[in-house]
UniProtKB/TrEMBL annotation:
PROSITE patterns: CHEW
Pfam annotation, one family: CheW
InterPro entries: CheW, CheW-like_dom_sf, CheW-lke_dom
CheW-like domain sequence ranges: 1-120
Coiled coil: none
GO cellular component annotations of the record: cytosol
Biological source species: Diploscapter pachys
Annotated protein name in UniProt: CheW-like domain-containing protein
GO terms for biological process, alphabetical: chemotaxis; signal transduction
Length: 129
């Protein structure tokens, strides 16, 4: 795992930064956004770096993961909107549910919604812990 630096006063969701190829980028733990308990790093833990368009600006963000099973391409015809009831997480943070390899379901988070709320100073997003 890459060395992390804690940022005092930063929102819990992005309480750390790391050096990624010479650029300092925020490190997010999406467990906090979805109300899940935070777990420590294991041998399987990874950091996946993504690029999001936030208000017209390309932004690199590191996502802390428990494990990476595979890199896959999903097709629009295999996705459905999140149900109104029966979902464990806030519906506005879930972009879609995707059928993958038979009966498996992948929850696709709405990363733009999560991080735009944080970037715009949304009090609820800042208090995620």
């Amino acid at each position: 795992m890459m060395p992390e630096t804690m940022v005092p006063g930063a929102p819990p969701l992005v309480a750390h930064v790391l050096n990624f190829r010479g650029r300092i980028i925020p490190l997010a733990d999406l467990r906090l956004a979805f109300g899940m308990p935070v777990t420590g790093a294991t041998l399987d833990s990874r950091i996946v770096v993504i690029e999001l368009d936030l208000d017209g600006e390309a932004t690199l963000i590191g996502l802390r993961t428990d494990k990476v099973h595979e890199v896959a391409t999903f097709h629009a015809n295999t996705s459905e909107d999140a149900p109104v009831v029966g979902l464990r997480w806030r519906r506005d943070l879930v972009r879609a549910l995707i059928r993958h390899e038979g009966d498996d379901i992948v929850v696709l988070p709405d990363l733009e919604a999560i991080f735009l709320n944080l970037a715009h100073g949304d009090a609820a997003a800042r208090s995620i812990h």
